[in-house]
C-alpha cells in the first residue's frame, strides 16, 4: 500500500464527508493505493456515525473510536500502530489542511528520501494575537532547544516514512514535537514544505490558550528527556555535587574563622554564610538523591526499548 492517511479528530462531524471525498479524489487521480484511518477521540457529536457510514461505502476507510477523550497524541499513536502504507500522512480533520498536498509530500518521502516532511503554514488564516505571534515564539523556542530547524512544528499536515511512525512513541501531549522525537530516534533527514492553509470552515477550535503553557512545559520535558533521559544522574548528580561543595566550602570557612581567626566574633548562626551553607548542602543532597532515583527508575523499566536497531544482516 502506498499511503496511510491518519486523521485524529474531535467533534468534526460537518467536515468529515467533504474531507473524505477530497482525499479519495486525490488518491484516485494519482492512482495511489491508500487507506484513511479516522481516529475518533471521544467525540460527543455524530462524528463516529459519519465515519461508520464512510467505511461502509469505501473499504479504504477505517475508523478507530476511543472510549473517551484521550488527546491528540494518543489518537496519533493508535493510528501509527495500525498504519500500513509506505508513507504515512497525518492531517487535521477540520479541512484546514489541503489534501492536494499529498502527492508532493509522498514524492518527497519516496523520491527525495526524507524520513519526515513537515508542513509549514507560511500564510495563516488565524488571528494574529491569539495564534500567529505565540506560535512564532513557540517555534523559535522549539528550534533553539531541539536543534531541529523547522518553522512550524505544530502543523497537523506531515508525512512520514513508515519506519519512523513505528519507532517513535508519541505520548502525553508530545504530538507537537514529533520531529524532535524522530530526530532523537535517529531519523535525521527532516524536511519542510510550504503548505496551503485555510480558515476553519465548520465547528470551532479544540485547543484554547492553555496549549501554549502546556506546549512550553512539554518543551522543557523533551529537552530534558533528549539530553538526560537515559542518564539523569549526569545532570542531577553534577548539580548536587556542585551545590554540596559550595555548602561545604562555606562550612569550612565558618569553622576555621570561628576556631582560629576570629573566636570572639559574631555567633555562627547570625552570619549569612551559615544559611547559605545549610541550604546549599540540603538542596545538593536532594539533587543527588533525585538523580539516583531517576537511575533506579530507568533500570526497573526493563521493557522499555533503550535503543533502536536500524538494520540487521540477513543471516540473523
Ligand atoms: N484525537 C484528538 N484530536 C483532536 C483533539 N483536539 C483536537 N483534535 C483534532 O486536531 C485537529 C486540530 O485541532 P483544531 O481545533 O483544528 O486546532 P487548530 O487547527 O490549531 O485550531 P483552529 O485554527 O481554530 O482550527 C482537528 O482535526 C481536531 O479535530 C483531541 O483531543 N483528540
Ligand atoms: Mg484547525
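-> sequence recovered:
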Amino acid at each position: 500500500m502506498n499511503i496511510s492517511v491518519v486523521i485524529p479528530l474531535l467533534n468534526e462531524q460537518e467536515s468529515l464527508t467533504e474531507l473524505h471525498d477530497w482525499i479519495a479524489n486525490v488518491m484516485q487521480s494519482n492512482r495511489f493505493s491508500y487507506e484513511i484511518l479516522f481516529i475518533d477521540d471521544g467525540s460527543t457529536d455524530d462524528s463516529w456515525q459519519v465515519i461508520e457510514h464512510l467505511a461502509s461505502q469505501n473499504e479504504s476507510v477505517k475508523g478507530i473510536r476511543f472510549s473517551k477523550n484521550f488527546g491528540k497524541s494518543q489518537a496519533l499513536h493508535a493510528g501509527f500502530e495500525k498504519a500500513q502504507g509506505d508513507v504515512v500522512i497525518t492531517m487535521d480533520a477540520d479541512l484546514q489542511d489541503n489534501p492536494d498536498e499529498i502527492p508532493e509530500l509522498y514524492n518527497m518521502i519516496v523520491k527525495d528520501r526524507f524520513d519526515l516532511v513537515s508542513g509549514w503554514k507560511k500564510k495563516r488564516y488565524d488571528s494574529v494575537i491569539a495564534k500567529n505571534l505565540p506560535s512564532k515564539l513557540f517555534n523559535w523556542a522549539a528550534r533553539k532547544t531541539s536543534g531541529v530547524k523547522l518553522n512550524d512544528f505544530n502543523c497537523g499536515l506531515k508525512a512520514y516514512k513508515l519506519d519512523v511512525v513505528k519507532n517513535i512513541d508519541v505520548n502525553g501531549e508530545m504530538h507537537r514535537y514529533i520531529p524532535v522525537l524522530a530526530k532523537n530516534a535517529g531519523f535525521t533527514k527532516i524536511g519542510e514544505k510550504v503548505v496551503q492553509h485555510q480558515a476553519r470552515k465548520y465547528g470551532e477550535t479544540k485547543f484554547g490558550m492553555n496549549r501554549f503553557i502546556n506546549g512550553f512545559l512539554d518543551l522543557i520535558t523533551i529537552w530534558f528527556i533528549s539530553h538526560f533521559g537515559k542518564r539523569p544522574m549526569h545532570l542531577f548528580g553534577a548539580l548536587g555535587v556542585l551545590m554540596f561543595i559550595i555548602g561545604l566550602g562555606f562550612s569550612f570557612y565558618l569553622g576555621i574563622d570561628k576556631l582560629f581567626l576570629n573566636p570572639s566574633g559574631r555567633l555562627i548562626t547570625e552570619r549569612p554564610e551559615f544559611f547559605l551553607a545549610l541550604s546549599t548542602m540540603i538542596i545538593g543532597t536532594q539533587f543527588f538523591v533525585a538523580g539516583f532515583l531517576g537511575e533506579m527508575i530507568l533500570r526497573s523499566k526493563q521493557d522499555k526499548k533503550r535503543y533502536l536497531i536500524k538494520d540487521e544482516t540477513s543471516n540473523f
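The two ends are 27 Å apart (CA to CA).
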